[in-house]
Amino acid sequence: MRAVVTGAAGFIGSHLSAHLLAAGDTVIGVDSLTDYYAPALKARNLRELTPHPAFTFHRADLLEADLAALLDGVDVVYHLAGQPGVRPSWGREFALYDQRNLLASQALLEAARGRPLRKFVYASSSSVYGEAPIFPTPETVCPRPVSPYGVTKLAAEHLCELYRSAHGLPSVSLRLFTVYGPRQRPDMAFARLIAAALSGASFPLYGDGEQTRDFTYVLDVVSAMRDAARSRFTGVANLGGGSPVSMKQAIAAVEHMVGPVNLDPRPGGLGESRHTGADISLAARAFGYRPRTELLDGLAAMAAHAAALRGSVIG
Ligand code: NAD
Fold this sequence. Notes:
It contains 10 helices and 13 strands. By secondary structure, the protein is of the alpha/beta class. The protein has one domain (2-177, 217-240, 272-292): NAD(P)-binding Rossmann-like Domain (Rossmann fold). The N and C termini lie far apart (41 Å). The model has no long low-confidence stretch (mean pLDDT 96). The structure holds nicotinamide-adenine-dinucleotide. Nicotinamide-adenine-dinucleotide binds at residues 7, 9-13, 30-34, 36, 42, 61-63, 80-84, 100, 104, 123, 125, 153, 176, 178-179, 185. Nicotinamide-adenine-dinucleotide is lined by residues 7, 9-13, 30-34, 36, 42, 61-63, 80-84, 100, 104, 123, 125, 153, 176, 178-179, 185.
């Protein structure tokens, strides 16, 4: 299949591109390399993809790119480009969330409608749920985001659903639950925890550490994205790891694996849900989703990758 991957230089997008290439697909990657975190890290992610003969890359902002030309002859669009991060989405920065999560998605959907696409796969987020009333949380729960980031992810998801019902676009919105693994964004908890354990720097722990997250390994996520694209399913589905753990438990696991972490307790972040936990039965039924990676195995792979990179920088 011929696929466009937006956000191809990012954490999940680079893993997805590698997965699609390994499965024999042709991949057209698009990314503007925003400075939400160091563009050099994104350039490094791309270096693992560019040698592949079936990979082409366009450095472009979705709001400025010639999307019609980009989507010509494409079977599947995987839309991962966006402005992540819950805490920074308050205040003036919101304009970036509006542009990169909502307006960019609308531009892409508009360019996609009327084309013979097999699937339009959107990377939505567990943050649409806010403080969910039920755990594990099924897709039928009314989403009530508690962060501006979550509001933009939900609004774009509604647009995907609207283009599906109004224009017959075969869209799938996958609500990803805290994705982790090698190359994780440096602002995310596991990446910061491992970096703190390796360097001795302190780790700001927001809240009491009893908050739980349904951590999901990145390779489970990207193979599910391709499976969803090849299935008959359209609509909204959760992708969670299947076994939520508390931040305290996650910290203990990193300390056991990498070394002690110097904690710097801070008040809980406004906009952070207290608990997340996915009911994954719909994804299991619809496209055979089954998370395969245990937290300790995934963390070990991530820690080994971080240590190797650190070694190569120091060396
Ligand atoms: P990331 O920041 O590593 O990747 C996003 C990429 O999109 C970046 O490389 C950025 O440069 C690019 N981008 C942003 N705006 C763009 C635009 N207008 N045009 C072109 N490129 C643009 O983030 P990630 O963690 O890999 O997340 C990927 C997607 O998955 C995001 O949409 C995010 O909201 C969603 N998601 C991630 C998680 C997670 O745990 N990482 C959880 C839920 C949802």
